Task: structure prediction
Amino acid sequence: MRALTGFSPVAAALGLSRWQRLGLAAFSGVLMTAGQPPVDIPWLMFLAVPILVWLLHGAPSARSAAWTGWAAGFGYFVTGLHWIGNAFLVDPDKFLLMMPLGVMGLPAGLALFWALAFWAAKRCWARVGWHGALVIATMLSAVELARGYVLTGFPWALPAYAWVDTPIMQAASWAGPFGLTFIALVLTGVPLVALAERRFVPVALSLAAFAALWIAGTARVPQEVVTSPTQPLIRLVQPNAPQHLKWEPGYREEFYKRALDATSAPPKTGDQTPDLVIWPEMAVFFVPAENPAEVERIAKAAGGAPVILGAFHREQQADGEFLSNAFHTILPDGTLGPRYDKHHLVPFGEYMPLVGVLGKLGLPEFSQGAGFSRGTGPQTLELPGLPSFSPIICYEAIFPYEAVGPERPAWIAQITNDAWFGSFAGPQQHLAQARFRAVEQGLPVVRATNTGISAMIDSYGRLVASIEMHNYDRLDARLPDALPSTLYSIVGDISFTILLVAMVFFTFLRRHVFRFD
Result:
């Protein structure tokens, strides 16, 4: 590396003690989290990622680098996922003691992915220089991709999501969220590191690439929302039922009445009645198939429009009773239409992994093995007079590779609750991920939630209309048009995975075979 005049960040990193290095790494992770909604300051990545590169250079060994990566990951996830703690407060007498496991244990476990990335980066590239930004971006992107799949996956708070309110998000239409994570880490990591080395060509190239993505994203999105007059008018119902009261006798009937009243209410503007009504996940306390009178009541309230709602579904089979978290449809004649059963269940929330281990640890509440049965996978459904759609329920929206069924639909219907997670961070991040699904697939996403944020999202990820958090309300909006199939909707993560494997292999060869360091 060329000699620097004045302050040298690499020299400063080399002079840090172990605890100083870990503390600074954790702080850098926190800075990266600030890019996520609702804080929405993605520009801090231009500082946070270079700090991580310099800390990697300053780590005296691969083991030390792994601890640095773990600290950065823990800072990132413990602040980015703090909202999980709200779920343990819904029934504190039962679950409060488990709160540290979710608030601290989950981030500590997810940080192991980052520890692996830093360990691999140190093993594959010892050279001090701006190239380190490429290496750490490669390794971090590789483990973030793995995080999306390993142990059923948990790709929440990907670095790409920091750019949800910028034109950079449009790159997800061809790169996807994992590819955009790599792009964001490279383009925010290189400029400051290269500038500190007085390597102006990499600075200029990275900033030019960033500007090109910004300009291309801006040019891709039309100023007006494109909606054909033949598209259906959809009503979203947000009953605003607090989770701790939702199933209580008396309250549950009140929330059900709210949904019925919002369904039968006249249009707020104009005189056209909805062509479809959507209620959120677990909107009713009964099993629709076992209560035909209530199904007819809902259909009557909709006044001839089909209804989508979330509720339990129960089946008796030879080997026992099966309960699923289901996406139900009600036809205008008061009969049930096609149903979708949630297939990607929430660990510890909708099913219990490691039942035997939890039992041995003396956690009976978490070791009973109870939970929902899994559906068959992503689907595309049809309702009379409506464009085909793919249903997703709550948690499933975080998985980009499961957003649509085998046959490409015209839109995506998401029903969710979100009342478990408070008002700050969780609901806003969940909405951001739904917006990314729209961009990736080139399809509008219609999102009905219990306590908010319900929204109509166009195929470019823009909010066409929405209902604010904790409001009891209804929203009528016409479905935006779908776009032609995007590159990501065709190839998914395959091309990026191949590129990433090639880059990891190349960095390994440079260090251990050709020894270009």
The radius of gyration is 24 Å. Confidence is low (pLDDT under 50) at residues 1-6, 513-517.
